[in-house]
Specification:
The chain is built from 21 helices and 16 strands. It has 516 residues and is of the alpha/beta class. The strands form five sheets. Strands 3-2-1-4-5-7-6 form a seven-stranded mixed sheet. It has a three-stranded antiparallel sheet with strand order 11-8-12. Strands 9-10 form a two-stranded antiparallel sheet. The longest helix is centred in the last third of the chain and has 24 residues. The chain is globular and about 65 Å long.
């Protein structure tokens, strides 16, 4: 295949002149994997050593290294991304070993340990078959028995209709723009060309009536994301059956979805669809059929090397030991959840009783919740399903052991101090690390500036708002309200004052999470 215009030879067709977005992906948290396994009745490994292949700018790997007792390794072959990741790792002092090696070099290193957890988010869809073979060989050699692999990847049938437009983007970028133009400009030109094509009402557009709106939504997205999602030389949505074949030499078996809401069929399938899926004895055919039912375009999957099924007693005892904590103010929890079927209403009786039992934002086991007044009337598995849903919504977090929290706290404090300082001049890392769930807590740049003001000794919410405004105004930046810029200074300060008041009210939860 022809190398895309403007990409250096060492990049193997991968976009190299634009960094990927500064995203955080909770599915890469080993603690989260543990609940997914428990929920489907599988034994999860104790994770000592973990690895992320293609860590992007290193937000997830550094958060997870700092906020847990797991030792992390990883690589991303774009030097600018690896440089930021290593800077964050040095700030945290968690010992994350991060490199800028290509997969072929990293995966053959003799100094790497065997791993209990290996993660890839997105990159599987954007690399060549040669690199996929390198990764599969690495999984075969370096994943411990019982170890888990997380793979997030583009899949079918959800990409079937839009794939021709992606090919049009790449064809235009490769043939109609100058190599020196830069990837961002080529992305803009390719999108404009595709829009002109669609405006002429081609038969493709009439046969796929949702694609015009899809193209408009793509045009509104971050250009760094679009460059990496659509403009690499290699781009391949892969159905579940093909993925299963690829991972077969590594002796991996599909374990569970990493998206908790997907664990509840009633929120994603109609009753007749769910009954039909349950009747399919073959796992590959079952997952392929499920993907057709929901028109899936991205899978987030856990695979295991040697699945061990728990006995009913082991599963029940494991669920009862699971620690959780409410991370949203009780009054702000909405008893609805977005799902494939639209929006599902959550049963007030059981969800309300569970939320009341954990409303003080203290860690509790599911077994302790089970014994709380108002919850006793419900079966354990129903309580566990509600916990899975609340965790999937983000209202509830899983909680590590106290010893691990104590070990991680100095490192998350150090990483967060660096992130707060970074927020003075840069946006994009919209999370802080928490030692309680061993993961991240959402925190906008404005909120980070206010926490920085607090850390520097400013006591009142009003002083936090003033601090944030002075920094932003000095850099010609605007305050946003409901996604729209606020131009006048008095209105900007008023909006920041509202945000500061909300943050101040959130402080008790942030303290419970070990963030402040």
């Amino acid at each position: 295949m022809v190398q895309p215009a403007g990409t250096p030879e060492w990049s193997a067709g991968y976009v190299a002149d634009v960094d990927y977005i500064l995203g955080y992906y909770p599915e890469l948290n080993p603690l989260r994997m543990g609940l997914a396994f428990l929920n489907v009745g599988l034994a999860a490994p104790e994770v000592v050593n973990a690895c992320e292949l293609g860590f992007g700018q290193g937000v997830s790997v550094n958060v997870h290294a700092a906020s847990s007792g797991v030792r992390w390794w990883g690589t991303d072959f774009l030097p600018s991304q690896a440089a930021l990741a290593r800077e964050l790792a040095a700030s945290a002092g968690a010992g994350a070993q991060l490199s800028d090696q290509a997969f072929a070099d990293f995966c053959t290193r003799p100094d790497l340990p065997d791993f209990d957890f290996i993660a890839l988010h997105g990159v599987w869809s954007w690399i060549s078959d040669e690199n996929r073979a390198v990764i599969v060989d690495f999984l075969k050699r370096k994943l411990n028995p019982g170890g888990v692999v997380y793979v997030g990847y583009n899949t079918q049938p959800g990409w079937a209709a839009s794939a021709p437009l992606r090919h049009l983007f790449v064809a235009h970028a490769g043939q109609m723009t100058a190599p020196g133009l830069g990837t961002t400009a080529r992305v803009d030109a390719a999108l404009a060309f595709a829009e002109r094509v669609m405006e002429l009402s081609p038969l493709y557009a009439r046969s796929n009536p949702t694609m015009s709106d899809w193209l408009k939504s793509v045009g509104q997205q971050n250009r760094s994301y679009l460059a990496h999602e659509f403009f690499n030389r290699d781009w391949r949505p892969m159905d579940f059956a093909e993925m299963s074949k690829w991972l077969e030499p590594a002796r991996l078996s599909y374990a569970a979805s990493a998206q908790f809401i997907e664990h509840v069929d009633g929120m994603n399938l109609k009753p007749a669809q769910s009954a039909f899926i349950r009747e399919i004895p073959d796992q590959v055919l079952r997952e392929c059929s499920r993907d057709l039912m929901v028109n899936r375009n991205f899978r987030r999957d856990y695979w295991v090397k040697g699945p061990r099924r728990l006995s009913a007693l082991e599963q029940i005892e494991g669920l009862r030991r699971q620690r959780v904590m409410l991370a949203t103010p009780r009054k702000d929890v909405v008893l609805k959840v977005a799902c494939v079927l639209g929006e599902a209403a959550l049963q007030v009786d059981i969800y309300g009783a569970i939320l009341d039992a954990i409303a003080d934002h203290k860690p509790r086991t599911i077994g302790e919740i089970e014994q709380a007044e108002g919850v006793k009337a419900f079966a354990l598995l129903a309580i566990a399903q509600a916990v899975v849903v609340l965790a999937g919504k983000g209202d509830l977090v899983l909680v590590q052991d106290e010893a691990v929290i104590a070990l991680a706290r100095p490192r998350t404090d150090a990483l967060n101090a660096r992130l707060l300082e970074r927020s003075r001049g840069a946006a994009g890392i919209d999370v802080l690390a928490s030692p309680v769930p061993g993961g991240a807590v959402a925190m906008s740049r404005t909120q980070q500036l206010m926490l920085l003001a607090r850390a520097q000794g400013r006591k009142s919410a009003a002083s936090w708002a003033s601090f944030a405004w002075k920094l932003m105004a000095s850099q010609g930046q605007v305050v946003l309200k409901d996604g729209a810029p606020v131009d006048a200074e008095d209105k900007a300060l008023a909006e920041l004052a509202v945000q500061a008041k909300t943050l101040n009210e959130r402080l008790p939860i942030l303290k419970a999470l070990g963030v402040v």
